[in-house]
From TrEMBL:
SWIM-type domain: residues covered: 18-50
Sorted UniProt keywords: Metal-binding, Zinc, Zinc-finger
Entry keyword Zinc: yes
Name assigned to this protein: SWIM-type domain-containing protein
Lineage: Eukaryota, Viridiplantae, Streptophyta, Embryophyta, Tracheophyta
GO MF term set: zinc ion binding
Pfam families: SWIM
InterPro entries per UniProt: Znf_PMZ, Znf_SWIM
Organism: Sesamum angolense
The UniProt record lists the keyword Zinc: yes
Amino acid sequence: MQDVRSTSVHGIFDGARYTVDLKEKICSCRSWDLTGVPCNHEMSAISAQVLDPDDFILKCYHVDTFCKVYAPAIMPLDGLEMWKKIGYIPPVIPNFERKKGRPARTRILETNEVQKDKKPATAIHRLPRQRGKMICKFCHQVGQNTKCCKWKKLTKEFPIDDVFEQATEIEHITTHVNKMR
C-alpha cells in the first residue's frame, strides 16, 4: 500500500459535503463501511493524491483471494433420499387464512397504551354503555320486555272474549303468575 499523505479529505460532491479518511478507510456516506469498495467520494480523494485504487479495496474482493477460497474441490451433497432420518416431527406450515368479515381498522388498545394524538385509555373509556331500564309494553313491569312477558304468554293460552269474563280471567292469570314466581 502506498503512503497516504493526508489523513482526511473534505470535499463537496453533488451539493453535499463529505469527509473521507483514507488511513482509516472511512467516508461520511458510510458506503465504504458497508461494502468495502470505495465510493465516488473516496475515489476522488484517492485520485487527488495519485494513489492506486486497488490498495483501498478489501482483500476479499481480490482475484487471488477468490482463487484461494475455491482452489479445493467442492464435493456435491448427497440427495434428499440419502439424508440421515431423525425422530423429530416435521414442521407444519402455519395456516394463514383471512378471517371472514370486514377487517378491523384499528386494534383495541390496552388501558395503559396511548393512541396517536390522544390521551391514554383508562378504565372509564372501556366501560360498557349504560342502558335505561327495560319496561314491558304489555304488563308495564320493570326488568322484562314483551318478548319474555309472562302475562302475554298466559293471555295467549287463555284468550278473553267477553268483558264480563275479563275480570275473572285476570284474577286467574295473576294467581297463576304468582305461583310461577
